[in-house]
Amino acid sequence: QVQLVESGGGSVQAGGSLSLSCTASGDIFSISIMGWYRQAPGSQRELVATASKIGRQNYADFVKGRFTISRDNAKNTVYLQMNSLKPEDTAVYYCAAEFIGGMLERAANFRSWGRGTQVTVSS
């Protein structure tokens, strides 16, 4: 079993930056891919970015060039640096781990989730 604890987030004006972090504990040896999803009110949870244990990264098109995911395997932590934030980036951001296979874009293919952290971008 894996526990994920997120930190960071908050409120910022459009064009600003925020950073998120997520630390895993528990059965960390089962973690190959960690990532970030987000969910806005009335919307489905959607993939933001993922990072594998060997450094392979994957981004949703809507964050390419603005967000950067990184991972510190020694600290069992994944980070998300968010720059040039837009009001449409407003959502609850969730850390995900324990990928069971299939499409990364499918939230159901991750077994462990953090509680989420709110990101609000005002215009």
How would you sum up this structure, described in words?
The chain is mainly beta and 123 residues long. The protein is built from no helices and 11 strands. It has strands at residues 2-8, 10-13, 18-26, 33-39, 46-52, 57-59, 67-72, 77-82, 91-99, 110-113, 117-122. The strands form 2 sheets. Strands 2, 4, 5, 6, 9, 10 and 11 form a 7-stranded mixed beta sheet that branches. The chain has a 4-stranded antiparallel beta sheet with strand order 1-3-8-7, with no helix packed on it. The termini are far apart. The model has no long low-confidence stretch (mean pLDDT 95).
What's the structural blueprint in terms of helices and strands?
Blueprint: E1 2-8, E2 10-13, E3 18-26, E4 33-39, E5 46-52, E6 57-59, E7 67-72, E8 77-82, E9 91-99, E10 110-113, E11 117-122
Parallel strand pairs: 2-11
Antiparallel strand pairs: 1-3, 3-8, 4-5, 4-9, 5-6, 7-8, 9-10, 9-11
Record field, number of beta strands: 11
Binned strand content: over 45%
Shape: globular
Structural class by sheet pairing and helices:
mainly beta
Radius of gyration: 13 Å
Q: Fraction of residues in helices?
A: under 10%
Q: Main beta sheet: strand number and arrangement?
A: 7 strands, mixed
Q: Compute the average pLDDT.
A: 95
Terminal residue distance: 40 Å
